[in-house]
Amino acid sequence: MEALDSLDRRLLDLLQADASRSNQALAAAAQVSPATALRRVRRLIETGVIERQVAIVSPQQLAGLSAIVEVTLDRQGAEHLSAFEQRAVIEAPVQQCYRVSPGPDFVLVLWMAEMADYHALVQRLFTQDANVRNVKTFFATHRAKFEPAVTFKPSTAPAP
Fold first, then answer.
1. CA within 20 to 30 Å of 65's CA: 4, 6, 46, 51, which one?
2. What is the C-alpha to C-alpha distance for residues 151 and 82, in angstroms, rounded to an integer?
3. For the chain, which ranges sit under pLDDT 50?
4. C-alpha 88: how far from its chain's center?
5. Which domains does the chain have, with CATH numbers?
6. Strands ordered across the beta sheet of 132-139
7. Which of 28, 1, 22 is nearest to 10 (CA)?
8. CB 124, CB 93: distance < 8 Å
9. Over the stretch 27-49, which tens digit does the pLDDT of each residue have?
């Protein structure tokens, strides 16, 4: 994909703040025609810059547990890392999965309705895998900030 220009960035900022607005409202906020806004957003979707549009549910409004988990594998060969990653990403409680370095091999962000769900996940993902050497879980007691938006540097490319 070509570099994002200032209009692309403006549209992305607006959509990250509220993706539910109509194309008319988006175009007005971006100060472009509705046809231009629609064409640009479609291109951003087609090129994968916009992965998907979702509703963000507040876990603070629901009973449940949030956890951050560090996982260290015994063997770190590419096939072992891929095997663990494939198993982790199919688990519903795993909201985010990152390979990291240095330190543990993976950091997972989890959300479960109750502790029994966490224990079941531990059995499926960590205990039954002989290659998992160490697991360190941190349970969230308070969420001070959650912002999924990507922040852009000011663009030097002019909008057409």
1. 51
2. 30
3. none
4. 14
5. 6-46 (1.10.10.10), 59-139 (3.30.70.920)
6. 94-99, 106-112, 65-73, 132-139
7. 28
8. no
9. 999 999 999 999 999 999 999 99
